[in-house]
Structures are given as structure tokens and as C-alpha cells.
Amino acid sequence: MVNSPPSRQPQPIQRPGLIASAFGLALRITGLLIVSLLFSILMEFAGLLLFWGDQGWRHSHAMLTSELGWLSEHFKSSLILQQPPQTTTRLLELLNHWLLVKTGFAEFTQQAQESSRGNGLWSGLSQLYLSIEDFVLAAVYISFTFAVRLTILLLTTPLFLLAMLTGFVDGLMRRDLRKFGAGRESSFVYHRAKRAMAPLLIAPWIIYLSLPFSLHPLLLLLPSAALLGMAVAITAATFKKYL
Question: Would you state the pLDDT for residue 18?
Fold first, then answer.
């Protein structure tokens, strides 16, 4: 009699630990921010070619000025940062010092106009820079604007947390009313609302960071927080009555 080979036991799925999960999450967030920055720069380049070419780099500079104005007006104090406008200004000064002054880029831009009139390699490089100066300076100011917008998003984190907490409490109350009132369950609504929470949490960050024009942050973030709170409330309210 031929003996059948012993059946193999399925290997248990090894889930990453807490440190590995946190590290992976940090990498994903960093990658998402880098992609948003590159996309915002590309959007500004497209605008320079198609829409506001006559403004040049001044368009991105005006965006930076508007974002700093809204930051100074609406975020004078915060639980996350002490004196957000002053802290953001120091951050921009630090970025300007290390990215423009230390690298010699600021000095090169000042000398490019005079060097372009001569002949030679340095003159050719100066002429090349002057031909793409609007794009280079636009990328610099968009990067600074990105830093300001990221600061604003971090300062509005309590708004989203409060919206989620409010929606969760309201949803639990509705769930209890449905539980003791013999209400009907709907797994379809529950799963759809649960899947919508992550996009509603991530989309405002990507949209606001990548906007190629100035927009008051509350016009985007307040509706986004309200929609997120509604999604959390629906998810909690439609959760199954009996565990």
C-alpha cells in the first residue's frame, strides 16, 4: 500500500512588528509628500507655459505671500507649534540659507545678468540660466509655498481629529438607538463609508499641497473635515449591532 505524503500545514502569515509598521508608514508619508511637491512644481511649470507666462516667477512668489498672510492671520497660536508665523518664517530663512546662499545659487543669479554679455563657457551658462530663470525661481518659491502649506495642514490636524471624534460619538449614539429600536442593518453602507474615510483624510493634503493657485485653506479644509466626520459617523452608526 502506497503511503500518501503528509499534507503540509499552511505557514502562518507573519505580520510586521510595530517598529517596522511605523517605519513603513513614515516612508509612505515621505514618498507621498515628495510626489505632491514634484506635482505642484510641474503644475506651476504648466501654468507658466500655458496661462501666466507673462507673470513669470512672480506668480509663485505671490502664492507664497498669500499663504504666509493666511498663516499669520488665522494661526496666531496653536497647540502644536508655539508662534506658528514666527516659526514658519525662521524655517523659510533656514531653507533659503542652506539651499540658496550656502550653495552659491543666490550669488550666481546676481552675476548671471552681467556674465551673459561676454563670451566663453561661463557666459554660455549664464545665458542658459537666464532663459530658464522663471522656471528655476518658480520651483524655489513653490518649494517654499509647499513648506508653508504643510505647516498649515499640520496646524489643522486638531480640526480633523475633532471632526472624527464628533462623528464617532454621534455614530455610536445612532448605533445604540438602532440596536435598541430593532433597526435594520446595512453592511453595504458600512463598507462603503469605511472605505471612504482614508481618501477623505488623504485627499485634502494632496489637493491643497498641489494647488497651482492661492486658495484660502479653510475653504478646502473645513468641508473636508465635515465630510470626514460624516463618513466616521456613518461607519460607526452602521456597524453591526451585535458582536
Answer: 73
